[in-house]
Specification:
By secondary structure, the protein is of the alpha+beta class. It has one domain (about 5-160): 2-C-methyl-D-erythritol 2,4-cyclodiphosphate synthase (60s Ribosomal Protein L30, Chain: A, 2-Layer Sandwich). It contains 5 helices and 7 strands, in the order ββββαααβαβαβ. The strands form 2 sheets. A 5-stranded mixed β-sheet has the order 4-1-7-5-6. Strands 2-3 form a two-stranded antiparallel sheet. A hairpin with a 2-residue loop joins strand 2 (about 25) and strand 3 (about 30). Helix 1 packs parallel to helix 3 (about 80-90). The longest helix is centred in the middle third of the chain and has 14 residues, at about 80-90. The chain is globular. The model has no long low-confidence stretch (mean pLDDT about 95). The structure holds zinc ion.
Length: about 170
């Protein structure tokens, strides 16, 4: 009898405060903006949500366990390196990504023109085709921390397929 692959779904959520004098980086893309995000690493809120989705799907804890913000090794880290580190570990165990769906919530900047660029880059970082990745952008409807421009959040959902259990 043919064995079906094992499927696992994972979700990730992240939030970072906006901060003047920082470069805004979303999905490893330097987005033109008069402010950036505060954080221990490069504060790439989208990649952090993606990392948590991958760790969640495979029951491997969360980003804080893998990259403690007290760790000198990951201070000002490139989040793309963090994502690659996690993904290589999962891929080595036979996991494949079926699809990844993401939402960035930001009152500013307007992310419409950036969505396809971010999508391509995230797909590239994970060795996927762009069709396997979707990046959505929402405003904060002028309410709450996102709507006031105090924070940017990101959510990610991923579906993984693994080797059938023998
Ligand atoms: Zn983060």
């Amino acid at each position: 009898m043919q064995k079906l692959p094992v499927f696992r779904v994972g979700e990730g959520h992240d939030v970072h405060r906006t901060a003047a004098g920082r470069q805004l980086i979303l999905g490893n893309i330097r987005v033109d903006c008069e402010f950036g995000l505060d954080g221990h690493s490069d504060a790439d809120v989208l990649l952090h949500a993606v990392i948590d989705a991958l760790l969640g799907a495979t029951g491997r804890g969360d980003i804080g366990e893998w990259f403690p913000n007290t760790s000198a090794e990951w201070k000002d880290a490139d989040s793309a390196d963090m994502l690659t580190h996690v993904w290589q570990s999962l891929a080595a165990d036979g996991w494949q990504i079926q699809n990844l769906d993401c939402t960035i919530s930001a009152e500013k900047p307007h992310l419409g023109p950036w969505k396809p660029i971010i999508r391509e880059r995230v797909a590239q970082l994970l060795g996927l085709s762009a069709e396997q990745v979707n990046v959505k952008a929402k405003s904060g409807e002028a309410v709450g921390p996102v709507g006031r421009g105090d924070a940017i959040t990101a959510d990610a959902v991923v579906l993984l397929a693994g080797k059938p259990k023998t």
